[in-house]
Each structure stands twice: as C-alpha cells, then as structure tokens.
User: Which sequence fits this backbone?
C-alpha cells in the first residue's frame, strides 16, 4: 500500500527589485499542492489532467527525482524521505518510472541489452554478468520483446517507437519495484501501438502484483487501464474515485467538462458542449478561493472567497460545494475529514 | 577501444579520409622506426671520400636530401624529427583533451559554483595569446620536450573544456539521464557512463584539431630556437637553416621540413573533417 | 546596451589585470634567486644591492605587487638588462610596427576571404572551388614561418623583387622617426610580409564563409528572395552574406589571437622590428623586463582587437546586445 500525504512541491520564483523594495513577497509556484491518495498492490490509480496541472512534477516526486517541499510518500509504513536517507539505492528499487518519450529516455549510445542491465549495475547488485543478463532477458521477454536475444545488441534508433517503449518498461521492471509510475506512456506512440502497450501494463500489474500510477491527459486510455481515477487541476486533486463511478457520475465541474470533451466514436451519442471558459491561469498566480472558480460554469460568489472542502460519497471524493448535492440519500454531502 | 574502432571505420569510408589515414599511418610508422633506419645520426658530421666535411652538399645518392652547413645528413634529421613531431603532437593532444574533457564534464554537469569559477577563468584568459605565453613559460624553465608539452597543454585545454561543457549542459536535461537517476545511478555513474559516451565524438574531433595545432606550434617553438637542444625536430632543422644565413644557397635544406609538416597536418585536418562529416548528421538525427 | 559594454570592458580590464598578475608571480617564482628576473645578475653585487632596495625587493611580496602595478600604470616597464635603458623607450615604436604588420593584413585577409568564399560557395561545384579549397587547407597546414622563408627564397633572392627583411633599408632613416612610415622604402619592405600574412590568414575566413554560404543556400528565406525576383547577386550580397558573416564575426577574436601570435614568427623571419621579435630576442638574452613588457603589450593588443571584433559583431547581430 502506497500512501501519499499532503504532498507538495513549491518553487520559489525570483522577484524583481521593485517588488522586493515594495515588500511584496516572492511568488511561489505551487506545482503540487497538498495531494493525497493511496494505491494498493495490484491496483492502478489514474491521474488525469491537462498540461500544466502538475502531474509530471508529481511523477518526479514519487520516483525520488526531486524532494517534496511538504508531505511525503509512504511505502508500507516507511516514509520515502527516511528511506532515501538511509539507503538511496534501496529506495530506488521500490519505485520505477516509465517515461513519456520512449526515444529520449534511452541513451542512444547504449545497446538494448546494456540498457536493461544498467539498473542492476547502478544498484551495485551482487550478481554475476550472466545472472544480470538472465534478468535482462526475462524482463525483455515479459515486456513482449521476444526472442530477447534478437534485441540485446541493437541500438535504440534501430527499434520502432512501440518497441522502444517496451524496452523502457523492461528496464522499469527489471529491479522488481513495488510501484510503477507511468507518465503518459502512450501519448507519443502511434494509435495502433497504444493498445498493445496498455495491455502490457495491465498484464504486468496483474502478474507481478504491482501498484501503478498511470498519468495521462487522455481519459479514454485511463478508463481502460485504471481501477481508480484522480483528476488534477493546478496542483490539486479535485476529484477522485473508482473509475466507473467517476465516469458515470462526475461531481466536479472540471471533471464533467473533461468528460464532455473526450471524443467518442459513436456520432449518435449526444454530448453537452464543454462549458469551461478561458484558459489555465498562470500557476504562480493562483486564484483565491476555489482554484477553478474563474472558469467554472456554476461558480458562486462564495467560491471566490474560500477554498471548497472535500466532500465524499463512499469512495468517491470531490472538492466542490456542489458535489453530491443531488445524490438524494442521507449519506450524501458527508464532508471528508 | 570501441571508440577507436568506430573512429577508424568511419574515417576509412571517405576517400580523403582513407588517404589521410594512410599518410598519417606512414608518418606514425616512420616516427617509430625512423631513428633505426636513418643512415646517419642526427648530429653526425659527414665526410666525403677525401675526409673533407660535407658542408651544404646538394642531394646525392649518399645523402638523399643533402647536408646542412655543418655536414649533417638532412634525411636522417628528418627521420629523427618525425619522432619528435609525432610524440609531442600526440601527447599534447591527448593530454589536452583528457584534461579539457574532465573539466568540461564536471563543470557542465554540476553547474553552480564550480561552473561559474571555470567559466570565469576561461573568459578572463580569453585574451591570452597562445604562442607568446608559451614562450614566456619556456623562458623561465628548462627547455626540454616535457616542459614544452606541458606548456602547450596548459594553454590548450580550455578550448576543449568550453566545447565539452556546452555539450554536457544540453545533454544533462535529456530524459535518459533522469531515467538513469531513477535506477539509482550516482553522479559519477551518470557522468562517466551515461554522458561521456555521448561526448566521445566531440572528444575525438577535439583531439584531431589539438593534434594539428600542437604539431605546428611545436615546429614554431623549434624554429624560434626554444626547443629542446638535445632533440631534433622539424622546426629546429629550419632554425638551423635560418640561423646559418645559408638557407638561400640550400633550398634542399628548407623544403623538406615544411613539406613534411604540411603533409602531416593536412592529413590530420582531413581525418578530422571526414570523421566530423559523418558524426555530425548522425548526431542531429539522433537528437 | 550600455550594460553590455560595461560588462565587456570590465571583462577586458579584468583580463589584463589577471595577466599582469600572472606575469608578476611567474617571474618571481623562479627556482633560485627570485630577484634574478628583476635585477640583472650581470651587475656588481653592490649595484644589485642598491637596486634591490630601490626596487623594493626586500619588502614583502604584496608590497612589491603594489609597486609593480603602480609602475605599470604609468607605463614604467623597468630597465632592460641588456641596454640598461628604460624598456618603455623602445617599446613604443615596436608596438606600432607590429600593429602595422598584423592588422592591415588581417583585415584584408578577412575581407578577401569573405568575398571569395561567398562567391565560390554560391556557385557550387566549379573547378576553381575545388582547387581553392584544397590550396587553402594545405596552406593552413603549413607553418607560416616556413611560408615566409619560401617567399624570401623566391621573391627576394630568386626574383630580387623585394628586400630580404627589416623595415627599411639600413641607414636610410638614421633617426627612425615617423617620416619613415610614409616612405616608399617602408612599403617596399612591408610588401612581402604583408602578402605572406594575408595569404596565410585568408584561408580560414575563406573556408568558413564557403561552408557558411553552403549552409545558407538551402534556407527558406533564400527561396523567398528568389521568388521575389531578386537577382542572384542581390540575394547573395544582401541576404545570404549578411547572415553568413555572423560565424566569421564570432571567430574573429579567436583568429586575432592567432594572428598576433603568428606575428612572432613572421617578425622573426623578416627581421621586422616588432613586439614579437623583441620578445624572442629578449628571451635569448634573458632580458626579463623586456620579455615581460613585450608580452604584456601583445596581450593588450589581443584584448583590444577582441573588443573591436565584438563591436563589429554587435553591429551585425543586434540581438546579442539586448541580452
């Protein structure tokens, strides 16, 4: 069980001399602000959001590329910060990442076999070269590159996009991590390849009992991979819940708009037009109160004043004061925590 | 090493590269065996049948390139000089690039204070004239081959460092570096196992240009009379020719060293160019 | 705009300062008697003692440094070991001679190189191009002092067209005053070194301009200009060359460094009484104050030239100034 509590990453921005003289505080860019969720082994949690919402920063925080400004990630009971302090390498063994760009995340000067063996080398694993090769081969096979021996001596530029991404996946699983973070793993692949990679990821989660965080801006792929979904906006999670529940019964206006704007193949399905106005505001200059209120079609005056509390209905959470208003039963509008 | 092999493969492909490699290879071989096959010693005075000193003899069967004003065989001097040119050139080039490479790697990767200091030094000493500074250094120390090599390296490494640093700075943003870090790679792992292989083509090109420069500079130092007095170099042959004031009567003394330098350096330039022409588009393609 | 220049000038000043400090420490770090480079060991011990006190050599190092900088700022370079006279007396004319040798030929070489390189690069594949490229690469690989020797051998000895060396015929201008520079005799002596230097420096800008133009040929704005109906020549001069000049301008400071350094050997071959020859002679005589002074002035020349090169660059590419 991987728990994320109050995770935040703030970047201080430099301020001009005039601002400093006027006593204005330096702005901080709150890329991730108070994010919380949990993922269990064998479960896939989807993280949806547009560009700039902070999901890539969140991915980097999970994987330990950057230290969080607030909060922590807990593996079992252990906090990531203490784990890293104690043994940085051992920490990295527990969580691995599949990056968005299959070409950019492979060193063009290394052979495929090398690439998949390197994690073990960097871990200073006490394995013989033949054992390392065995592990690499089985990782490649599991990632669908079979027979692996065909690929060992090739260079990244000799493979197709889909194959490269499989190499990245092989590299990510070779250390037997607990948590796999997939940051838009299919967005740069051809449409015909996407499905194969998604199936591969699902299979790995099942076979290895992995926990996975699947980050994307594309709701349709998230819907087919994820057990649960979280919607991110400007560094915060605005809604989260089981996938089907969230898709069929979205509560946050942003989620509703996202769903509405997702293309569907069937032209006969009538869809309401998306109703968000405007563009994502500058993340350094957050709106007061609810961060979504300037663009929200159902915003009320109070939304500009105070940030909304999180409301829950069973497993389904949303931070909007309109959430669950029409659920009818007594259980509705239960304020979370 | 892998890099050497791929370097030779690439350069061999183009005609100019192939010819240049052969020429360079010949010079290299001459540098090794030259002193052994030279008919005379470099400072040996040669006499004719009548026991008379063979001053300024024009080329003949006994002395293919003639003799100097002190009766020394020029061909032998040229063969001995080949060793000097190669030894000094290669050692300087290698040393320069190794130092420059490491500085560039460390400065480019770590950035911050180390990089700022390095760039400050490089920028400030931008106006340092190379050859005059070497001369000043040599005026203060012993004149032997090793101080010459060291003086040249001292002046040259900064150019390589700048180029490498720029390249490293663009490389360190790449995703495969972040990927390596997530698997537990340490800083030195990343520097020498991930970044360095991508810098190698640049390093090789640097070596060729440093080599060309070193050969010419070593000859210039020899020509000015600041070379190692115990060592014959192509530059010092020209120094003897010029200083004797007899060069006007002995063109056979003046031509060989210059032609040899010209051929050797041209071959190095063409090798470098042949390599670069292949590597550069390939780098663009992969980026 | 002014901040850029301020920074640039400050950098130049810092460079010069670092260099003279470097010289200071280098010359005093000799193994053995550290003062041997400041006071001629040829003098009587008593005289050395007096001079030692006069130069403040018994004082702590930082005080000496202070005196050193102070002296330099009033252009007091000390006394030559060889002549016993102040170095500053002779060095002025030497500086001028080097400037007259290096800068005109460098400018000519760059101008010629750019134009020929542009024309050759624009009209691809001609015989002239292949020959010129090959010759340029070969010429660049030859040591410039050897080229000088060859030119003397052929033009001066064989053809008797030019004098063998020196700046004027011996005895013609006994006072060596400024009138000398305006004489035909001077030009006659300048001709050969000027030609050799220009030819040698020509190669680099030529090759660079050519490859720069080759890269420009494929660019979109060239196509656009053609479609607008401009003549080939207009395109070349007004559009392509302008942009291709940039890499040349960037390399000009570097080339300048080489040119000044190259003047050392050229002056030696032609016995041209400039800073380079002065330095070489002084090293031969262990005349350290002169070595130091000559080097510093060469450095000043290089730095000044670099600043001028930067000025040219900003004229070509206004972007860099607004950084």
Assistant:
């Amino acid at each position: 069980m991987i728990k994320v509590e109050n995770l935040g990453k703030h970047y201080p921005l430099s301020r001009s001399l005039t601002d400093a003289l006027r006593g204005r505080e330096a702005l901080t860019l709150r890329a991730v602000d108070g994010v919380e969720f949990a993922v269990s082994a064998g479960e896939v949690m989807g993280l949806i959001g547009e560009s700039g919402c902070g999901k890539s920063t969140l991915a980097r925080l999970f994987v330990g590329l950057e230290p969080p400004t607030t909060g922590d990630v807990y593996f079992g009971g252990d906090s990531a910060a203490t784990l890293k302090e104690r043994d940085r390498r051992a920490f990295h063994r527990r969580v691995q990442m599949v990056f968005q760009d299959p070409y950019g995340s492979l060193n063009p000067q290394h052979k495929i076999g090398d690439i998949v063996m390197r994690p073990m080398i960097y871990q200073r694993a006490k394995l013989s070269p033949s054992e390392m090769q065995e592990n690499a081969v089985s990782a490649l096979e599991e990632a669908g590159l079979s027979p692996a021996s065909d690929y060992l001596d090739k260079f990244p530029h000799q493979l197709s996009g889909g194959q490269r991404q499989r190499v990245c996946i092989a590299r990510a699983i070779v250390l037997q991590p607990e948590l796999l973070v997939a940051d838009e793993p299919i967005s740069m692949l051809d449409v015909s390849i996407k499905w194969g990679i998604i199936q591969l990821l699902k299979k790995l989660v099942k076979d290895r009992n992995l926990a996975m965080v699947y980050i994307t801006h594309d709701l349709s792929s998230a819907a087919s991979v994820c057990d649960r979904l979280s919607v991110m906006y400007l560094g915060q999670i605005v809604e989260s819940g089981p996938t089907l529940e969230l898709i069929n019964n979205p509560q946050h206006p942003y989620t509703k708009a996202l769903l509405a704007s997702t293309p569907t193949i069937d032209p006969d399905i009538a869809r309401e037009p998306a109703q968000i106005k405007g563009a994502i505001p500058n993340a350094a200059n957050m709106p007061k109160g609810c961060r979504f209120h300037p663009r929200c079609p159902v915003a009320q005056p109070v939304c500009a004043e105070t940030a909304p509390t999180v409301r829950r209905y069973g497993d389904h959470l949303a931070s909007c004061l309109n959430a669950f208003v029409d659920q009818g039963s007594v259980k509705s509008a239960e304020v979370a925590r | 090493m892998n890099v050497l092999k791929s370097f030779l493969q690439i350069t061999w492909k183009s005609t100019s590269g192939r010819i240049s490699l052969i020429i360079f290879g010949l010079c290299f071989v001459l540098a090794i065996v030259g002193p052994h096959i030279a008919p005379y010693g470099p400072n040996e005075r040669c006499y004719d049948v009548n026991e008379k000193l063979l001053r300024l003899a024009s080329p003949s069967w006994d002395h293919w390139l003639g003799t100097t004003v002190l009766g020394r065989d020029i061909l032998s001097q040229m063969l001995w000089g080949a060793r000097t040119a190669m030894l000094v050139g290669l050692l300087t080039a290698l040393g320069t690039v190794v130092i420059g490479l490491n500085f560039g790697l460390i400065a480019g990767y770590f950035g911050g204070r180390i990089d700022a200091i390095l760039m400050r030094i490089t920028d400030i000493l931008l106006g340092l004239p190379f050859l005059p500074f070497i001369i000043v250094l040599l005026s203060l120390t012993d004149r032997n081959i090793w101080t010459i090599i060291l003086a040249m390296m001292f002046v040259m490494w900064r150019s390589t460092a700048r180029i490498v640093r720029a390249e490293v700075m663009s490389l360190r943003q790449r995703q495969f570096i972040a990927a390596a870090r997530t698997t537990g790679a340490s800083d030195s792992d990343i520097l020498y196992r991930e970044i360095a292989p991508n810098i190698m083509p640049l390093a090789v090109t640097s070596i060729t240009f440093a080599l060309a420069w070193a050969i010419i500079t070593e000859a210039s130092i020899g020509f000015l009379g600041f070379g190692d007095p115990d060592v014959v170099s192509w530059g010092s042959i020209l120094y003897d020719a010029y200083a004797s004031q007899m060069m006007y009567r002995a063109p056979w003394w003046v031509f060989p060293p210059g032609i040899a330098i010209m051929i050797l350096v041209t071959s190095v330039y063409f090798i470098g160019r042949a390599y670069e022409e292949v590597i550069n588009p390939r780098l663009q393609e992969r980026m | 705009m002014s901040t850029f220049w301020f920074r640039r000038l400050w950098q130049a000043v810092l460079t010069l300062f670092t260099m003279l400090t470097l010289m200071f420490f280098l010359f005093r770090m000799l193994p053995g008697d550290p003062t041997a480079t400041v006071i001629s060991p040829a003098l009587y011990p008593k005289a050395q003692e007096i001079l030692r006190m006069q130069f403040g050599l018994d004082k702590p190092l930082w005080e000496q440094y202070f005196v050193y900088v102070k002296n330099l700022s009033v252009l007091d370079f000390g006394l030559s070991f060889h002549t016993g006279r102040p170095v500053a007396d002779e060095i002025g004319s030497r500086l001028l001679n080097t400037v007259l040798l290096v800068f005109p030929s460098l400018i000519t070489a760059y101008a010629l190189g750019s134009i020929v390189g542009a024309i050759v690069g624009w009209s691809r594949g001609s015989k002239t191009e292949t020959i010129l490229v090959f010759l340029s690469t070969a010429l660049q690989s030859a040591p410039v002092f050897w080229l000088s020797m060859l030119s003397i051998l052929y033009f001066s000895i064989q053809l008797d067209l030019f004098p063998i060396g020196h700046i004027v015929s011996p005895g013609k201008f006994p006072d060596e005053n400024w009138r000398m520079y305006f004489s035909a005799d001077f030009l006659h002596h300048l001709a050969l070194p000027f030609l050799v230097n220009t030819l040698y420096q020509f190669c680099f800008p030529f090759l660079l301009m050519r490859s720069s133009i080759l890269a420009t040929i494929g660019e979109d704005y060239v196509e656009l200009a053609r479609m607008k109906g401009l003549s080939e020549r207009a395109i070349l001069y007004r559009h392509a060359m302008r942009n291709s000049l940039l890499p040349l301008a960037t390399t000009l400071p570097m080339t300048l460094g080489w040119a000044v350094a190259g003047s050392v050997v050229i002056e030696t071959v032609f016995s041209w009484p400039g800073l380079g020859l002065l330095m070489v002679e002084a090293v031969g005589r262990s005349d350290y104050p002169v070595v130091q002074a000559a080097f510093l002035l060469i450095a000043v020349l290089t730095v000044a030239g670099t600043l001028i090169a930067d000025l040219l660059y900003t004229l070509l590419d206004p972007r860099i100034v607004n950084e």
About this structure: Chains C and A do not touch (no CB pair under 8 Å).
